[in-house]
Amino acid sequence: MNKIFKLIPVLAITAFFSASCSSSSDDGGGAAPAVPNTAPTAVSNLVYPSSDLLCIDSNITFEWAAATDVDNDVLEYTIRIATDRDQTNIIAQQTTTNTSITIQLGAGTAYYWNVMASDGEDNAAASPTLAFYTEGNGVANYAPFTAALNAPALDAFVAAGTTTLDWTGSDVDAGDTLTYDLYFGTSTNPAVSQLDLATSTFDVTTVAATTYYWRVDTKDNNGVKSIGQEWSFTTN
User: What is the pLDDT of residues 78-108, one digit of tens each?
Assistant: First the structure.
């Protein structure tokens, strides 16, 4: 009789652990983790106006290639047109589900445009920015476009030592010859470093743990100058 009573606590403990193991392994019925939404690709091709084009009509139909989205979301496109390459002075902005839109602009003006593709889930991707001119009445010579940044990328971190500044200049007047004034230093609004550069690259000497600011003004052979945007980078 005593042996039977001794078995009862052992059986109770065994039943407790069996129940515990059973309940902990039987939780597979919960909801699956949500799959994050993927941003659409950027618009890779701005079809019209193409880069550095002189548009003879100010009523312009902008066209671009469609972006793609792996989630098959319906995409919206926001076109932004500005009078500066950095797009701080936007003069027109519209959103459409199409890949073209017609916008009336002023004559005799340099514009810079890009397109942002969005999937409606707070995911968006911007295209490159292109420049174009609208033709002006009686204009014989157009100012060059502001320089486009190549390297170092905006706000990039680079190795100290010799750093190559690289940019692209362009002008709608195909026969014009371009030169560049380079401003470079360790503070905003840097002082002029080089005048009348004939090439669009220049090597500068940098030291570690320093932020540098630089700007390129573009001039044509008629003496017309376009003031560039200020860029910066930091050395490691």
Answer: 999 999 999 999 999 999 999 999 999 999 9
